[in-house]
Input
Amino acid sequence: MSKTFDVVGIGNAMVDVLARCDDAFLSEAGVEKGIMQLIDMDRAVELYGNVGPAREVSGGSAANTIAVVAALGGSTAYVGKVKDDQLGAIFAHDMRAQGAIYETAFAPADDEAETGRCIVLVTPDGERSMNTYLGVTENLSPSDIDEKQMSDARMIYLEGYRFDGPESHAAFAKAIAATKGAGGLVSLTLSDPFCVERHRDAFRAMLRDHVDLLFANRDEICSMYQTTDFAHAVSQAASEISIVACTDSENGAHILSGEARWHAPAYPVDIVDATGAGDAFAGAFLWAHSKGIGLETCGRMGCLAASEVISHIGARPEADLSELFKQHGLL
Amino acid sequence: MSKTFDVVGIGNAMVDVLARCDDAFLSEAGVEKGIMQLIDMDRAVELYGNVGPAREVSGGSAANTIAVVAALGGSTAYVGKVKDDQLGAIFAHDMRAQGAIYETAFAPADDEAETGRCIVLVTPDGERSMNTYLGVTENLSPSDIDEKQMSDARMIYLEGYRFDGPESHAAFAKAIAATKGAGGLVSLTLSDPFCVERHRDAFRAMLRDHVDLLFANRDEICSMYQTTDFAHAVSQAASEISIVACTDSENGAHILSGEARWHAPAYPVDIVDATGAGDAFAGAFLWAHSKGIGLETCGRMGCLAASEVISHIGARPEADLSELFKQHGLL
Output
């Protein structure tokens, strides 16, 4: 059956505030390196007041992924809540300008919360430490899910981060039911090991019952299956999910489907800013998979897209990814 | 007499919205290439709706210059109006985070105009075409000028662009009087050839009567003296102004003071985005001049700072300029 959308993403709609700092700044500011921490508005104001000059770019994990699918020519839509304020307008503009359908209900201008933002602190080693004020994106609820849109998607892509939020479980359940009911597939990213800690049981049930394609990195999948044995965790995932795509930083990615396994090597690059590497991997993989490209090549394209994104500041690609794929003989 | 500030800048406070496009886009959108055009909010909305994904960074010509002086360790303040909105907060943050004193009166949140923004369209050749919605920055008036601050400046730096605005002539006059009255110096950038067209007589009077240091590029100074003979225009400027620093793109800069003349060559670099080249030149020159460094070296530092800024997207330096000056034997 023909569907309008290759991929519809659901996640936290965020504007990234990117600033460089050194490790001493992280220590003084009490920021734990390399992970995502949720902060409130007071902390956001405090932290922002202390960081150096910054630049603002649209972010959000699933939104970055959808931007990659759209940049590659995939037909996409994105669901995630922003407010009718200047940062919300920036987010909406960049989503639409990339070619994605973005018709989310804007939170009203008198909402106490603001458009979500993520203060991303980039250290000289290229590692990023994310400080997330969720704002209105936390209020995603079942009423924001358009069942018709979901049923018109070949695949939906769910962001694990969005599991933090009172009504988001119900929103995800509604999206999954509408998609599956119309013969579509469900993909999920685990997002973050601490996110997995907070929602392990719910995630496990979703993996077993609904997820057709899982994205995770080493820490996340080990946390999911409560083991330090990476190979074991990946195998366990593959025993209950049709396709598992697991990234492992400079070691590339492992793709598993039934008994089949492939390894996609990482493309060596000077890391300027690791923000968005996993998002870009997922975006390129999803696009390639939606085009019927073999899983091994999906993984290689994912690794190549990730290498592009980490070679500059900012979580979305600056180069023409199709061109890059061609240069590397993947297209 | 000891002064608190090396340089105090007065100009249009703007947030830049940077997007890449091709020449065909400029033609279709009716944007004239390479210059600054003033636009209203409707046009800003229309243009923004058509451009691709963008990034937001603090801009404003004199603000970029002050950011460079501050980044080099100079003591600075900046005067330019923003609104108490999200873009205004971004501008204020980046100014202060760079170390500049920025205590401008925020325009009230119910002001009809918003914080100024400049939609900068960058073509593949690195040329930038600027589309400026002035917003509240246009309302700079004498009441925004703190005479005590101006009298505490070794030099003020006036942005020619800010001459567009009902009360700005009076604001400039007030700033000049306070600075000069306390023995400080006045510098000015002509900003743009069309800006010179609009205000030639007022600029001429100011040059003759008040300006100690003039920044201009080839087109601007030719427009100022209504000639196509660059050498003649520069000489004429030098006959009425103590120091003239005139940039000429890839030909570097000419520095004139009385009978003395120097040429500072440009540093060859791949141009990614020409936005802010002149601003960075002025910033490095002003800093060096305030430190008593010879005029020829001031010019060389200006050219080197400009080369750094045009080698990446965005109008403010990303590299450590002091370090760069040392590497090139200028410090």
About this structure: Chain B touches chain A at residues 19, 48-49, 51-58, 67, 85-87, 90, 93-94, 97-98, 114, 314, 316 (CB under 8 Å).
